[in-house]
Amino acid sequence: MGSQSQIQRRNSSKIIRKGVSGKKKRSGGSQNGRSKEKPESSQKTTAVDEPTNVERKTQRKQIVKFVKSVLEKGPQGLRSEFASMKRGNDFEKMKAFKSAQENGKNRYKDVGCLDNNRVKLQNWSHDYIHANYVATPTNPKRFICTQAPLEKTCADFWFMCMQEQVEHIFMLCNLLEKGAKKCFEYFPSKDKGTLEFEDKDQKITVKFESSNEMKFEKSSKAKVIETVFLVEGPGGMSQKTTHYHWVDWPDRGVPAADMAILELLAKARVSKAPIVVHCSAGIGRTGSVVMIEYIMDQLLSGQQIEESDKILVKIREQRNNSIQTDQQYLFVHQILMNYFLEKKLFDKEIKEAHLQFTVQYLKCVQ
To answer: Mind listing the pLDDT tens digit for each residue in 114-173?
Structure first.
């Protein structure tokens, strides 16, 4: 079996080099065709939208390398890679988290919040919130990864959003999942109109403005509710933010690997402010989104795409224990492979290799 596996990897490498890089001569024409179909609202939505010739060559090199690595490892190899990266808590690096435990500010005792890059509340009754800045290669504060708000932390959450001028919030969980409370109802519905939260003598008001189910450009099974809120706080603070509630992303699992998450990221990417992302603990589903954008950021900026395990280590150094399951780790890779397929970057042979990968992937996640 060992020699057969080596032969398969060599064949895969040959297919990748031929399949992806072999389309270079045709890319100019097909690129022009794609740009005509791109909606005006799509800004920097993909790695291959209207690049220069130099950028196109650099991007293709990175894509070839990434695809080669993913297909050579295969789903089983990626699962083994993930299993080798053990998770744990070093509470010496989480002293603020430990102190906040007595005040009921943490949702889970075993989901720590690192001190080194935690978000600190300013001009508030305290500075602690279970949230960390997480960087991508070109943006040191691209994300704020946080736990789902508790009843005691709703005011903290919305104050943080005003402080950081947050324009986009991704909610990847539901209030109740499998009979367990996963998140407090921290935002108003259309019927309620307004919710108020208090911390000591300071008040936060969240006003409902509009809501609709998001319609994706590409076919998607995802159900995402897009709602606009106006948040008002002490001292005349205010912030308008768009809240994306992904209703059907299963806890510790993955949704269909279609283009929905990439479309969401494209909508939020135009903002210079941090994107707030939370599930229940703020590490599993949340970490999956962060890793996808980390790789997309490297690709969009023409940087070398690092090895997946190294990327995850860097993310975990900022948000402890990000990505909880091997299914989520596989999902990140499947999404990006499907993205490259969607962009017509694979020829017949590479499509076949991708199809084999997908068949194995579905067996792992179902």
So the answer is: 999 999 999 999 999 999 999 999 999 999 999 999 999 999 999 999 999 999 999 999
Strand 275-278 relative to strand 139-146, pairing = parallel
In whole angstroms, give the CA distance from residue 177 to residue 285.
14
**CATH code of the domain made up of 91-323:** 3.90.190.10
Distance between CA atoms of residues 133 and 98, nearest Å:
19
d(CA 31, CA 29): 5
Name the active-site residue from 113, 154, 183, 279: 279
Tokens found for residue 135: 């960087």
Q: Where are the domains of the chain?
A: 1-87+335-366, 91-323
Q: How much is the pLDDT for 194?
A: 97
Active site residue 154: no
What pLDDT is stored for residue 51 in this prediction? 59
pTM above 0.70, yes or no: yes
Measured in degrees and rounded to the nearest 5, phi and psi for residue 116 equal -60, -30
CA distance linking residue 30 with residue 26, whole number of Å: 7
- Asked if residue 114 lies in contact with residue 132, where contact means CB atoms within 8 angstroms, the answer is yes
